[in-house]
Amino acid sequence: MNSATQRRRADYDEAPYGSSVRPVPSPDHLAAVAHLFGVDPPAVDTARVLEIGCASGANLLPFASAYPEATVVGIDLSGVQIAAGRHTAAAKGLRNVTLLHGDIAEFDLNPLGPFDFIVCHGVYSWVPDHVREAVLDTIRTALAPQGVAYVSYDVYPGWKTKEVLRDFLTRFDHPVGMPAERARRARTLIDFLGDVAPAGSELERLVLTYLSTSGQIGDNYLLHEELERFNSPCYFVDFVERLDAHELVYLADARPDTMYAANYAEEAAQRLIEECESQLELEQRLDFVGNRAFRQSLVVPACRAAQIRYDVGPARFPLLHFASRLPAADGFTRFDHSSQYYGEPGTRQIYTNDHGVKAALDVLTACWPHTVSWHRLTRAVRERLTGAGLEPPADLQTRIDMLLQMLIVRGLVCYRLDPVAPVDDPTAPSMFTR
Ligand SMILES: C[S@@+](CC[C@H](N)C(=O)[O-])C[C@H]1O[C@@H](n2cnc3c(N)ncnc32)[C@H](O)[C@@H]1O
C-alpha cells in the first residue's frame, strides 16, 4: 500500500464518512433503470452484489436485510468503518454479508465473483489515479457478463467553480489537527471569504451558493469533499473514454430525468436535440447547460452496447411497477373536461384535462409509497372511469403509456422490476426516499 493510500486510510479511520441509505445506487433501482434502457439485468433477489468503498455498509446492510437470498460483499480501506459494519451486521443477524478490510488496488476480488451488481459510490473522484484504474479494472474483471455497475463521480463544468472554493480552503488550511477542528477552520475561512467578497462579485455569488446548500452539510462531508486530499473531477465524455479502455460502456444515468433535453426550455431543448448526434454528446452538452457537478453512471460490459436503447418506449413498461405521488392540486379530481394541476405546489406539476390521465394519477397517488404494476394500473384506471360513469377511451393504454413516459423523463415517477408492497415494520425507510 503506497503512502497516499495509507494517508487516505487514516483520514477515513479518523473521520468515518457517516454514510446513510441511498436508494439511487440500490440494485433494485439499477435493475429497473437498466431494463428501461433495453438491458435485461440479473434477478435482484438472488443477486451477488459488491460495493467498492462500502464504509460501514450503510448502503449494503439494508439491501442484505431486504433480500436474504442475495449475497453481499463490501470492501473498504478503513478498518474502523469495516469493524463498525461487521458489528451492525452481526447485531442484525445478517448471514449474507461479507465485509472486507482492504485496498481495492491490491485485493483480488475475482475469486469472490462474478458479481451481478457492483456499486462504487463516493470513491472514484476522491482517490489517486491508480485506485481509479483499479475500480474500473475490478468492474471489468469481476462483473458478470449480464451484470450492471454503478459509479458516481464529480464532473466539470460544475466543479470548475466549486474548485475555486476548494483551492482557497486547501491552500489556507493546514491538514493538521482533529477532523472537527479542521472542519471548524474551514467554515471560518468560508465565512471570511463571504465577509470580504465585493458585493455583486463572482466570489460573492460563489460563497452565497455554497452557503445556501451547506446548512445541511455535516463536518464529514466537508472533510471528504472540499477538504479531501484527492478530488479529480472529469468531463463526462472523458469518463466514458476511460470506460472504453476497460471494455466497459456507459448505459444510462441513475437519474434518467437528467438525460433528456425535454427538461429544459422548449426552444433550448429543440436546439440541443437538433445539434447532437448521439446520446453521449447530448448529455455532455446538458452538463454544460446545467453546470453539472456530480454524476451517477450505470456501466455495463462493452459486449452489451448493441442492446442499449435511449428511446424510453412503452415496450419496456409491461414488466415494471410504478410509484408516484401527484395529488390533484385543488384537492380532488373533476371528471368534467376541466384542466387541473397535479402535484404539490412549488414542485413540477402536470396540467391535464384528460380523464384517463387524471384517473391514472389518482391511482398512482392512492398507492404511494407502494408500487402498482403496469397491468394493474390500466385495470384500476378503467375501474375508476367506469365507477365515475365514464366510458374508457379506446386508446386508454396509449394515454397511460404516454403519461408514464412523460413522468419518467421528468423524474416524477419511481419504478422497479419487483413490486414494493407495504412492509411490517412501519419505521423501515421507504424504498423511494429521495
Ligand atoms: C466517501 S466514502 C463513501 C462510502 C459509501 N460508498 C457511501 O456511499 O456512503 C469513500 C469510501 O471509500 C473508501 N476507500 C478509499 N480508498 C479506497 C481503496 N483504495 N480501497 C477501498 N476503499 C477505499 C474510504 O475508506 C471510504 O470509506
Structural description of this entry:
The structure is a single chain. With about 425 residues, this protein is α/β, with parallel strands linked by helices. It has three domains: about 5-155 and about 235-305, Vaccinia Virus protein VP39 (Rossmann fold, 3-Layer(aba) Sandwich), CATH 3.40.50; about 160-225; about 315-415, Outer Surface Protein A, domain 3 (Alpha-Beta Complex), CATH 3.90.930. The protein has helices at about 5-15, 25-35, 60-65, 80-90, 130-140, 160-170, 180-195, 200-215, 220-225, 235-245, 265-275, 280-290, 355-365, 375-385, 395-410, and strands at about 50, 70-75, 95-100, 115-120, 145-155, 250-255, 295-300, 320-325, 340, 350, 370-375, 415. The protein has a seven-stranded mixed sheet, with helices on both faces. Helix 7 packs across helix 8 and helix 13 crosses helix 14. The chain binds S-adenosylmethionine (SAM). S-adenosylmethionine binds near residues 17, 19, 59, 103 and 121. It holds the Pfam family MethyTransf_Reg.
SS class: alpha/beta
Total beta strand runs? 12
Low-confidence sequence ranges: 425-434
Net shape? globular
CATH architecture of the largest domain: 3-Layer(aba) Sandwich
The termini sit apart by 37 Å
Instruction: Say which molecules are bound, naming each kind only once.
Output: S-adenosylmethionine
Mean pLDDT: 89
β-strand amount: 5-15%
Number of domains: 3
Order of strands across the main sheet: 3-2-1-4-5-7-6
List its salient traits.
3 domains, Rossmann fold, alpha/beta, seven-stranded mixed sheet, 12 strands, Outer Surface Protein A, domain 3, binds S-adenosylmethionine
